[in-house]
Specification:
Elements (H helix, E strand, L loop, with lengths): L1 H4 L6 E5 L2 H13 L7 E5 L7 H4 L2 E5 L2 E8 L2 H4 L4 H4 L1 H8 L7 E8 L5 E3 L4 E5 H7 L5 H12 L3 E5 L17 E4 L3 E4 L10 H4 L1
Parallel strand pairs: 1-2, 4-5, 7-8
Antiparallel strand pairs: 3-4, 6-7, 9-10
Length: about 200
């Protein structure tokens, strides 16, 4: 199943923390019948493995790609994130991205899971998460950053979304996603005794 899932990537770039992790990853991929000649390992020290949050956010314009590299703070300083914050530049230096890909470093804390876009001008996020990261900023100021970085026309904010044990402070990707035809798929709770009932209402 693993081999089938990754068959579309050519070559397969595998980011590993060190030689020990590299050997273990290579063994697991070989056991899963992944063609070893397609594997390209990049050793880069990291704090966590959740590249969805610390990695580049990619803008696509035709055949051109632009990597937005926001500051990663370990989910608002809850965990060490300094090495994860350097991952994008480390991967750029290793040459894993096409030479015509452009890169923009943005010194503003944002994780990939904190935003959702329909690719047509709308961005969805939560106030709880972004306010925790930037308590001094207004919603309008943050709208301006999103409009500049992502070229969106509107930003939709969810006011609620607390989940017990959620270190992300209500990332949008656990609560709601934009779907075709201007629809939003969202997490709900119909049990009034559940501690999430009010937040998810």
């Amino acid at each position: 199943a693993l081999a089938a899932a990754i068959a579309r990537f050519e070559p397969l770039v595998v980011c590993v923390a060190d030689a020990r992790v590299r050997a273990r990853a290579a063994a697991l991929l070989t056991e899963s019948h992944v063609d070893a000649t397609r594997l390209h390992f990049v050793e880069a020290p990291y704090d966590d493995t959740w590249l969805r949050d610390s990695g580049p956010l990619t803008l696509v314009d035709g055949n051109r790609y632009r990597l937005l590299d926001f500051r990663f703070t370990g989910w608002g300083g809850k965990y060490e994130g300094g090495r994860d914050d350097r991952l994008v530049s480390t991967l750029l230096d290793s040459g894993v991205f096409a030479p015509d890909v452009t890169h923009r470093r943005i010194d503003w804390a944002l994780e990939g899971g904190a935003i959702e876009s329909d690719g047509r001008g709308t961005l969805l996020t939560t106030w709880r998460c972004l306010h925790q990261r930037h308590p001094q900023m207004s919603r309008e100021q943050m709208d301006g950053i999103f409009q500049d970085a992502f070229h969106v026309e509107r930003v939709l904010w969810l006011e609620h979304g607390y989940l017990e044990g959620d270190d992300t402070d209500a990332h949008i990707d656990t609560l709601a996603r934009l779907a075709p035809d201007d629809a939003i798929v969202f997490q709900a709770c119909d049990d009034a005794s559940d501690p999430h009932f009010a937040e998810l209402a």
